[in-house]
Amino acid sequence: MRYRSEFQRAVVDLWSECNLIVPQNDPVVDIQKKVDYQPELFFVALLDGHVVGSVMAGYEGHRGWLNYVAVLPDYQDQGYGRKLVEKAVAELKKIGCLKVNLEVRKSNSSVIDFYLHLGFKDNKIVGLGKRLG
Q1: Helices then strands (H, E): number in the chain?
Q2: Which residue range forms the structural domain that includes residue 45?
Q3: How far apart are alpha carbons 12 and 20 in whole angstroms?
Q4: Which DSSP state fits 131?
Q5: What is the sign, positive or negative, of the torsion defined by CA atoms of 95, 118, 108, 18?
Q6: What is the CATH number of the domain that holds 59?
């Protein structure tokens, strides 16, 4: 389902439990930026009305990106992550996206295996970034 503002606390807690929050990123600010830009590409997985997963997708006209893909540890390996990724990819495809990228910390080997199982490939590239703020 699409993200709604009443899910904010649960989403921040989810990201925290999944170790996705880093000091340089304020999750509330990241959520607001997504709500302000392409909110239709922000999804949550619900079980009995409770947030158990999330994915933020984005498209800039050339490639799509997946961010904040997370599933609560007690609900991992039950298909929620796969369904979230498939939903995000399907929505990106609808708007003309031909390739989806994502970044995973090298130390997170189980998550890398998850994406490989879903058909993602190691692009054999070096990811570079520059903080602007």
Answers
A1: 4, 4
A2: 5-103
A3: 9
A4: -
A5: positive
A6: 3.40.630.30
Residue 133 pLDDT exceeds 90: no
| DSSP character at residue 94 | H
Q: How confident is the model at residue 5 (pLDDT cuts 50, 70, 90)?
A: very high
Give the type of residue at 128: L
Using CA atoms, how far residue 29 sits from 12, 13, 99, 133, in Å, is 11, 14, 27, 13
Q: In whole angstroms, what is the distance from residue 89 CA to residue 57 CA?
A: 8
- CA gap 68, 31 in Å, rounded: 10
In a domain, residue 77? The reply is yes
SS3 124: coil
φ, ψ of residue 55 in degrees (nearest 5):
-155, 135
Give the pLDDT confidence of 78-129 residue by residue, as tens digits. 999 999 999 999 999 999 999 999 999 888 888 999 999 999 999 998 888 9
Structure tokens at 55: 């994915």
Closest among 10, 3, 96, 71 to 41, alpha carbons compared: 3
Helix (H) or strand (E) holding 2: none
